[in-house]
From TrEMBL:
One of its GO terms (molecular function) is acetoacetyl-CoA reductase activity. Residues 4-183 form the Ketoreductase domain. Pfam families: adh_short (PF00106). This is Acetoacetyl-CoA reductase. Keywords: Oxidoreductase. The keyword Phosphoprotein does not apply. Belongs to the short-chain dehydrogenases/reductases (SDR) family. InterPro entries: Acetoacetyl-CoA_reductase, KR_dom, NAD(P)-bd_dom_sf, Sc_DH/Rdtase_CS, SDR, SDR_fam. Gene3D superfamilies: NAD(P)-binding Rossmann-like Domain.
Length: 246
């Protein structure tokens, strides 16, 4: 298997950490961004105890200049990025009639506009090298909508629109672009939801439990292999059967 350089944005989070671990296990050089030095240091130490070395670069996915600097620092330290996982994301839940402009913008900027900020400085190099794997981490709620998440559902649906356009533009350059849409996964984001709400969510999942970050990471790694060069523009739904629509 060819060793490649991968960037996972939000690699220090619940799902991101699992993706980083899986990509490292595949033998890749893996980079991620951080915003808070102390938090990054603690995470780096925890990973090092598992024998996992990660290239950590400061970067805020909401800020285009910060992203350009981050990509160029990774390029300098580990080589050109061949695998990109746009995973960083946030929620700011509230019903739309109470939503502030800031709550809307924060969510759209972090989940959707970040795809531009991070992918734009990477794509030209991938086209030149004629190989690339790009995976967007969207959400079940970008497919089915969700009460209290007009901002998040709009941003996550937009991510797949981005995927299918980028997939068409770059298919002839050996670059695949896909979306993974997780259902509810047992990370801090979901465990912060009140227990009674979580129980109601689980009741809607045919498999009868929340997903694990490893189950999402497994799918992401699958989409980054040489063998999946004919899979592009797909949206892989991983949700325990909660949403089975097309
Ligand atoms: P976490 O909150 O655990 O992790 C989010 C990561 O994104 C953190 O590393 C965080 O870094 C980073 N991040 C947030 N904002 C920025 C920013 N402006 N610039 C750079 N990094 C940023 O979330 P999850 O692991 O649960 O979620 C990962 C992805 O999966 C998200 O896109 C989420 O929407 C999606 N998802 C999650 C589901 C779930 O059930 N958990 C379900 C469906 C989709 P920092 O520490 O600096 O804040």
């Amino acid at each position: 298997m060819t060793q490649r350089t991968a960037l996972v944005t939000g690699g220090t989070g619940g799902i991101g950490t699992a993706i980083v671990r899986y990509l490292v296990k595949q033998g890749h050089r893996v980079a991620t961004n951080y915003r808070d030095e102390a938090k990054a240091d603690a995470w780096r130490k925890a990973m090092a105890q598992e024998g996992i070395e990660v290239c950590m670069v400061q970067g805020d996915v909401v800020d285009p200049t910060s992203c350009e600097n981050m990509i160029s620092a990774i390029h300098h330290k580990c080589g050109p990025i061949e695998i990109l996982v746009n995973n960083a994301g946030i929620t700011r839940d509230t019903t739309f009639h109470k939503m502030t402009y800031q709550q809307w913008m924060d969510v759209v900027n972090t989940n959707l506009n970040a795809c531009f900020n991070v992918t734009r400085p990477v794509i030209e190099d991938m086209r030149t090298r004629k190989w690339g794997r790009i995976v967007q981490i969207s959400s079940i709620n970008g497919l089915k909508g969700q009460y209290g998440q007009a901002n998040y559902a709009a941003a996550k649906a937009g991510m797949h629109g981005f995927t299918i356009s980028l997939a068409q533009e770059n298919a002839r350059f050996g670059i695949t672009v896909n979306t993974v849409s997780p259902g509810y996964v047992a990370t801090d984001m979901v465990m912060a939801v009140p227990e009674e709400v979580r129980e109601k969510i689980i009741a809607q999942i045919p498999v009868g439990r929340l997903g694990t970050p490893e189950e999402i990471a497994h799918a992401v790694v699958f989409l980054t292999t040489d063998e999946t060069s004919w899979i592009t523009g797909t949206n892989l739904k991983i949700n325990g059967g909660q949403y089975m629509g097309w």
